[in-house]
Amino acid sequence: MSKQDHAAAAAAPSPTVGGDPQDFDICLKLIDQLWALRQAMLAREKALKLELDKVLPEYRKSARNLIHYLTLRSIDLRPLQEQLARLGLSSLGRSESHVLASLDKVLGLLHRLTGQAWQDKSAEEPAGSISSRALLKKHTLRLLGQAPAGRPVRIMVTLPSDAASDAQLVRELVDAGMDIARINCAHDTPSDWQRMSAHVRSAAAAAQRPVKLLMDLGGPKIRTGPVADRPPVLKLKPGKDDMGRVVRPARLHLRPIDSTAQVPHVDASVGVWEVWLARLKAGSHIHFTDARGAKRQLLVVHNDDTGAVTECLQTAYLTPETVLTLGGAGGKKKHATLVCQIDSQQGALRLHVGDHLRLTRDGLGQPAAMDDDSDAPSPEPAHVAVTLPQVIDQARVGQRIWFDDGRIGGVIRQQTDDWLDIEITQARPEGEKLTGDKGINLPDSKLNLPALSDKDIEDLQTVAAEADMVGLSFVQKPADIALLRGQLQRLGRDDMGIVLKIETLQGFENLPELMLSAMASNVSGVMIARGDLAVECGYERLAEVQEEILWCAEAAHMPVIWATQVLEFMAKTGLPSRAEISDAGLGVRAECVMLNKGPYISQAIRTLDDILQRMGGHQAKKRPLLRALKAWSGPDTPASGAMLGSLTI
Question: Across residues 69-81, what is the average pLDDT?
Fold first, then answer.
């Protein structure tokens, strides 16, 4: 607003807005503030011309609007919003998708309230309230496909390993409502992925509707290396009542060595020599001394071609060195054999608060032990290798480190060329078990890791041949996207959709730059990968972070996938928790919601479908939809038809 316009407005006799002179002064002040904000938006757009020139023409308007939004949110708007709300004007709270148009609308109204002329500026605006929705819809259709009738949000499902061999399983997922299938390339093999994708295409054809396929690259996931297996020990434990009386004997199956036969209703199965096994018959007694030196007995209750089923009335521990003897307890020993096959147990490190753990470049993980080379033995801390040893060089003393989705927390206390010494600062009172192949997060560390591993580049051969879109895991900087785009161009798939998986703090902080970089590709979207992201940013901050990602993506007219632990308890147990039902309802603000695998996944899909259909009538992004409330419109309520008469809209 020019000084001349201000002077003319102020010189008007007794200027008021709605009869209140104070509101008139507020309007003049707001005009100045909003006009300065408008100029700042255009100035920032001009300053970022080089970045905008890299964006494809079909995304230029979206990129401009994103820049305007970032400018809008660079200051605290709350005092300004209060003044706008007082005047009954838009407080810009839902302007993400059309920032400049919203600002101009308010400026135009303020000019009219103060009796000043306003020239239409829609030609300068990249998107309006209607066209912005059209842009988001266009970009979403290209990446995720059409949403089903009656549900505005698509459902994505992570395929289990069984989907490679069980076509019926995939058919059930499609019939339940799966719109997009996800294959995690961190698991299984390329041949498995090919069979999964073939089953998806077949199921989609049978259902006569499209089902898209997303394949996630493993990416630079930092994990623990293998931990040494624990000695093979089998515990037999009978069932007892509250008084300690045995109500169900422990049942052990004795099978021939190398046999894989399985029998129902047994607690465990071990291999023994076949010649000895042939001597057993129902009623035979087998005596042994268990690993603790306790005398124990097995009773043969059934035998057939698969082996013998035995029962034990006392708790017993068996190892491969346990000798089984056929014959009376006090009589002459008749025939004996070793227990030859007991599977080793997965290795684990037991960690408590105050313990130290060494993260090494390589080697097999081992629990804490005593140093036998010292005259005065000192504890040797537990140690485990890291799959990406570069982090040992890039992390720093004093920085936090998390293991296994945040279950175990620690602080780096010492750093050498070969290991990091970590003090455990968070674990349950009884301690936590850390096994191999568990995720590691270093939220305070600025890590420089390769965006694509050699395995990822190799996996892209299969991804390019099978998938509709590719998930870029642990994306952190624009160069990561450029690297992926170069590989896709090499494979002749520069048309493939790219999904930016935001799962690190650095990725979140660089989100605007990442989205601008992704707009140089044909089609792209964002996944809020809330598992690792929660560990990286802190669980208490996750709600805020996922909101900000939603806002930023809406400003860029970019589709969002709401992912990780949605209805997870239900998918695993068949029963949802109240909290996750509410969480699933929030997913209506995204364009797609992702479910992970579980034995009750089909039931979870149907439940999510019902939730999203219901919530789709109440919410569109941040905008509430005020559909008629049927719950309170009965014949005896104030909202009854008799009281409303013939009101129609």
Answer: 95
